[in-house]
């Protein structure tokens, strides 16, 4: 048993799943705002690659903060829990992005995946892989120390 939810103990796998969903949602909101700004204003002015290069440090910084907060909030400490959290967040991100590409922007799934073939697309995918791996590399002492700043 791990974190509590309304006074009830939550099993560690359940806590890791919830942490992954919260981590995904937190970063997705920030990414949606940054991606919109990049797509509408930054990339048209300076190009897609430069737009992604400018956006990437901000989204990775937000991911780092959200990762630490989720690890601490849901008491995620073991390697398997961290792996579940990161993989679930990554899978949710990929599914939701693909759904947006198809349903909102009218792109085919193959067209969405083909975007990873460009330098900007490959860099964006690399950033998403870093997002998935953050729970594995986030220092344990930082996750527990972040509770001091609540």
Summarize this structure as a short list of keywords or feature phrases.
single chain; 150 residues; mainly alpha; two-stranded antiparallel ribbon; 6 helices; 2 strands
- The number of strands is 2
Distance between the termini: 23 Å
Structural class comes to mainly alpha
Order of helices and strands, N to C? EEHHHHHH
Summarize the amount of helix as a percent range: over 70%
Major sheet: arrangement of strands: 1-2
Strand residue percentage = under 5%
Mean pLDDT: 92
Q: Count the DSSP helices.
A: 6
Q: Give a quick account of the main beta sheet: strands, pairing sense, barrel closure.
A: 2 strands, antiparallel
Query: How many separate domains?
Result: 1
Tell me the Rg in angstroms.
Answer: 17 Å
**Overall geometric form:** globular
Oligomer type: single chain
- Return residue spans where pLDDT drops below 50 for at least 5 consecutive residues: none
